[in-house]
Specification:
By secondary structure, the chain is of the alpha+beta class. It has a domain of 228 residues: FAD/NAD(P)-binding domain (3-Layer(bba) Sandwich), CATH 3.50.50. Helices cover 34% and strands 31% of the residues. Helix 1 runs parallel beside helix 4. The chain is globular, with a radius of gyration of 21 Å. The relative contact order is 0.18. About 3% of the residues have low confidence.
């Protein structure tokens, strides 16, 4: 049976957009259903957040042909400083020791979306935008999709439906997918900070008894803060006057960057782990935040989603069968199983071990950081995980 498309992607954000860009190089007929207009400027708080791109993600974006543009507004991370407040344990990672230009890069989410959207306009992809998915139904070899665009309903069909529509995924909710959720009883406070130091290429991960605290360098010389703590405490801290807020932050972070000053307002959001054990079903697959939402402690969320998109593109462009065939999706699931399980488990363990003042855990994490800093093999393994190179990096094929 003929279909309108081989692949329909619900969600044209960073992950879904990158998948569409990769597939646009193939003979596959591809469409995107996106709730927002692709030519609109991202101006919400989520869009302004800092994204820590791993070295592996930089390589994938380079394969997509958009890294040169993104690089002009990115900050290379040449060093990562990891420490545990109140203890001697600390470790330092450097790009030089890993023989790369940078361990990763920091880019604003809105900048990634703007560059991806601009590339999509020129790509061989049909875009339904702004539009929303109403429902889909899967028959033996076709997915029938009903959408609404500009108050008009429309029906399209495809071989494969991809849910790249975020943590509240409509594709996931309407499909036969199990979602496992684990609230952390924590909130993250995010803010933009002016710093006294002139350091511009060091990222900090500071573990405290209240929770992890990350500082990421920005393109304009400022730093982005992601400060995690128990929910009740976060609700108190975000209400503090600016002077008291900064005093508490300096107490927890220290003076690695000198005196800190708040720029603009703070934001706060709840944290939890959610993931789908089986991300493929009959002619439907979930990628990115639709498949897994992680704690921001290790900055792995977008990087993991981008590897989902790149691997799926690689499998689809190499498949002899149709895009939604069982064997095609089984191959994708097999290739992603190790990486997804590794990152979900790695992130979850860090949160549990490094977000407590339990004396046993304190000794373990302090000893672990000291050992890692002294044993090159352990440090290299940690660096490879941080750089997104712990598993095989997919190759995005050209035309």
């Amino acid at each position: 049976m003929l279909t309108d498309y081989d692949v329909v992607i619900v969600g044209g954000g960073m992950v879904g957009g990158c998948l569409a860009l990769a597939l646009s190089r193939s003979a596959l007929r591809v469409a995107i259903i996106e709730a927002q207009s692709l030519d609109s400027t991202v101006n919400n708080d989520a869009g302004k957040r800092a994204i820590a791109l791993s070295w592996g993600s930089r390589c994938l974006l380079d394969q997509l042909g958009i890294w040169d543009v993104l690089q002009t507004s990115s900050v290379p991370i040449e060093h990562i400083h990891v420490s545990d407040k109140g203890h001697f344990g600390k470790t330092r990672l450097s790009a030089k020791s890993q023989s790369v230009d940078a361990l990763g890069y920091v880019v604003a989410a809105e900048q990634i979306e703007l560059v991806v959207n601009a590339a999509l306009v020129k790509a061989k992809v049909d875009v339904f935008s702004p539009a929303e998915l109403l429902e889909y139904q899967v028959t033996d070899d076709v997915v029938n999709v009903r959408i609404q665009q500009q108050a008009k309903e429309q029906k399209i069909s495809c071989r494969l439906l991809v849910g790249a529509d975020g943590g509240s995924s409509v594709v996931r909710k309407q499909g036969c997918f199990e979602l496992r959720e684990q609230p952390y009883q924590q909130r993250a406070i995010t803010a933009q900070l002016r710093v006294e130091s002139d350091q511009r290429h060091i990222a900090y991960e500071r573990f405290t008894a209240e929770g992890p605290l990350a500082m990421l360098p920005h393109f304009d010389g400022t730093y982005s803060l992601v400060w995690t703590m128990p929910t009740a405490l976060a609700q108190q801290v975000i209400q503090l006057p600016e002077k008291e807020f900064i005093a508490k932050l300096q107490q927890q972070f220290g003076y690695w960057l000198g005196e800190l000053a708040l720029l603009g307002s703070c934001q706060s959001f709840p944290l939890s782990l959610s993931y789908v054990p089986e991300t493929v079903a009959n002619r439907v697959v979930l990628i990115g935040n639709a498949a897994h939402q992680l704690h921001p402690v290790a900055g792995q969320g977008f990087n993991l989603g981008l590897r989902d998109a790149a691997t799926l593109a690689d499998v689809l462009m190499s498949a002899e069968a149709d895009a939604g065939a069982d064997e095609t999706l089984a191959l994708y699931a097999k290739q992603r199983e190790f990486d997804q399980s590794l990152v979900v488990g790695f992130t979850d363990k860090i949160v549990k071990i490094f977000s407590t003042d339990n004396s046993v855990f304190s000794v373990l994490r302090n000893s672990g950081l000291l050992l890692m800093d002294k044993v090159p093999m352990l440090k290299n393994q940690f660096a490879q995980q941080t750089m997104g190179l712990a598993s095989r990096l997919p190759r995005i094929k050209g035309e």
